[in-house]
Design a protein that fits this description.
Elements: H1 18-28, E1 32-34, E2 41-43, H2 45-64, E3 68-69, E4 75-77, H3 78-81, H4 85-91, E5 97-105, E6 111-123, H5 128-138, E7 147-156, E8 170-180, H6 183-203, E9 210-213, E10 225-232, E11 238-246, H7 250-255, E12 258-260, E13 266-268, E14 270-277, H8 279-288, E15 305-309, H9 317-332, E16 335-336, E17 339-340, E18 343-345, H10 352-361, E19 365-369, H11 371-376, E20 378-383, E21 391-395, H12 396-424, E22 426-428, H13 432-438, E23 453-457, H14 462-472, E24 475-480, E25 487-489, E26 496-498, E27 500-504
Parallel strand pairs: 3-7, 15-18, 15-19, 22-23
Antiparallel strand pairs: 1-2, 4-6, 5-6, 7-8, 8-14, 9-10, 9-24, 10-11, 11-14, 12-13, 16-17, 19-20, 20-21, 23-27, 24-27, 25-26
Helix pairs in contact: 2-6
The protein binds one RNA strand of 77 nucleotides through helix 1, helix 4 and helix 10.
RNA sequence: CGGGGCGUAGCGCAGACUGGUAGCGCACUUGGAUGGGGUCCAAGGGGUCGGAGGUUCAAAUCCUCUCGCCCCGACCA
């Protein structure tokens, strides 16, 4: 008899310490690790594949709407950031600044910066200003519009506190920037791209989201309107999963993006910008992960299935491996949502440890293959979205035939589970005392998981927002598009407000 | 930047109060036995004890300074 197996692969559990659970899951799942550089991460192959799949899907969706990719510099001249007043306000801090362009030996075996730059360069925290510079040259006539550009890039924001995937000093993202002849068209584009994000997050990451707009205080600096999708994590906090901004003519004026209209007037363009980042991976982990590790939705998983040959006697090896290889070949021939199924073969020694590694990594399907299965032309299959002991023998050919359907069932199951969770912890709250109770943990010393999304009325005053933020660390995450026209008393001051807004604690 | 915690093998930790040969578990390597849910036995490899300075015959341990990380807060486009 071996050691008694712990109940869960991840310690602590979500309920014991959610923040620590998250870190342990990231580590155990082999998705990423901390780097020697403060606040930065190394994305390991198992995690980077998720990003590659997100990129592939999103990029296709963008191109389907006419967007083209381009690339702009990493460095932005300091004065560019000074062009838009509100933008300056929002970005004044938290930027990496390049002040030198050379290293010299310091005489003690080290290196010291030399060659001071006349004007410092900023490592882009976002690229509105430098892309605006290009746009101003590219746009002269209404015939040049709309201009629909996206770039896949890394950006740097010198955050005070970082969390792997959720908020890192450097992260990968895409930023779309468009310029239009009319405000209507720009507004439509803003909404169109938000819907693209919602589609990706719900249908690929299997994470349900709320769609809506930010309150003025939560807007992107310099934006006229910020649309967002918000997801609920398993600690019931909100995660902003994507934003799309209608910038009005603010950035066009700052960057001098003008065109001559059909009626021969000179006008400023109307611009938008929209982004989603590697933060999505953090959202995926916190939406689906359990106390045994991460659970990857099949449509973005690095690989969908792992084959684990069981070789009891050396003379069985050839037979088992042959059966395994042939199964792998058949599986790889199956198309799953337009792509090949990816198969891992793990022939490390059979035993519980091997299986647990794959559970922690969250692969959707685990398949054990031993002499017994071969005799019956079957395979022994475990699904990551069900209890880990629940495994069943399936006819080999049936398994291959059904695999797309099985993966879709897992995908669907993950989405529905997350949707039920969000719905369960979303409630209409009309009394101030109920609102405060909802967001106050019973144990102040070691807060349990509590709260959720509160749908309440708000009078529209920033004072009420900041009061609630100060009291409870709760903010308006979004004003849902479908909030309706029902009127009710502001949860804070009691004055009348139209439509319920969603309050929550957030990442 | 404020409060708290922590830096000792790849990972997790003990040793520190009371200074005296650098330890344990996991992982890794080799050999053997196992094998359908966290295997067993045996033998190995791996360390500037975060860094600098000080006290001492002697420092992981005591003192001073310093760097870094984690958690909570402030911040978060």
């Amino acid at each position: 008899m071996g050691k008694k197996a712990p109940k869960t692969a991840i310690k602590p559990t979500r309920n014991e310490d959610y923040a620590e659970w998250y870190q342990q899951v990231v580590k155990a799942s082999d998705l990423a690790e901390r780097s020697p550089v403060r606040g930065c991460m190394v994305i390991k192959p198992w995690g980077y594949a998720l990003w590659e799949n997100i990129v592939r899907e999103l990029d296709d969706m963008f191109k389907d709407t006419g967007v083209k990719n381009a690339y702009f510099p990493l460095f932005i001249p300091l004065n560019f950031l000074e062009k838009e007043a509100e933008h300056v306000e929002g970005f004044a801090k938290e930027c990496a600044v390049v002040t030198h362009h050379r290293l010299e030996k310091d005489g003690e075996g080290g290196l010291t910066p030399a060659g001071k730059l006349a004007e410092p360069l900023i490592v882009r925290p976002t690229s509105e200003t430098i892309i605006g510079e290009s746009f101003s040259k590219w746009v002269t006539s209404y015939r040049d519009l709309p201009l629909l550009i996206n770039q896949w890039a890394n950006v740097v924001r010198w955050e005070m506190r970082t969390r792997i995937f959720l908020r890192t000093s450097e992260f990968l993202w895409q930023e779309g920037h468009t310029a239009h002849a009319t405000d209507t068209e720009a507004v439509e584009r803003t909404r169109m791209m938000l819907d693209v994000y919602a589609n990706l997050v719900e249908n690929y990451l299997a994470v349900p989201v709320l769609r809506g707009r930010k309150s003025p205080s939560e807007r992107f600096p310099g934006a006229v309107d910020t649309l967002c999708i918000e997801a609920m994590m398993q600690d019931r906090k909100a995660l902003q999963a994507g934003t799309s901004h209608f910038l009005g003519q603010n950035f066009a004026k700052a960057s001098d993006i003008r065109f001559q209209s059909a009626s021969e007037n000179e006008e400023y363009a109307w611009t938008t910008s929209w982004g989603a980042s590697t933060r999505l991976i953090g959202g995926l982990i916190m939406s689906h992960g359990d106390d045994d590790g991460v659970i990857l939705p099949p449509r973005v998983a690095s690989s969908q299935v792992v084959l684990m040959p069981i070789i009891r006697k050396e003379e069985d090896r050839a037979k088992v491996m042959e059966y395994t290889q042939s199964l792998a070949k058949d599986l790889k021939g199956v198309r799953y949502h337009g792509r090949k199924i990816r198969v891992e073969i793990d022939d490390s020694p059979a035993g519980g440890a091997r299986g647990w590694e794959w559970i922690k990594k969250g692969i959707p399907l685990r398949v054990e293959i031993g002499p017994r299965d071969i005799d019956q032309n079957s395979v022994f299959v475990g699904r990551r979205d069900t209890e880990h002991r629940k495994k069943e023998s399936v006819n080999r050919d049936q398994f291959v035939t059904d695999i797309s359907q099985t993966l879709d069932e897992i995908q669907q199951n993950l989405f529905e589970r997350a949707k039920m969770f969000m719905d369960k912890h979303t409630r209409d709250i009309d009394k101030k005392e109920d609102f405060y109770a909802f967001f106050t943990p019973e144990n102040k010393e070691k807060p349990e998981i509590h709260g959720g999304f509160a749908r309440s009325f708000w009078c529209g005053a920033e004072d009420c927002e900041s009061k609630i933020k100060e009291d409870l660390k709760v903010t308006i995450r979004c004003i849902p598009f479908d909030s309706g026209s029902e009127r009710g008393a502001c949860i804070c001051c009691g004055k009348s407000g139209e439509g319920r807004v969603v309050f929550a604690k957030s990442y």
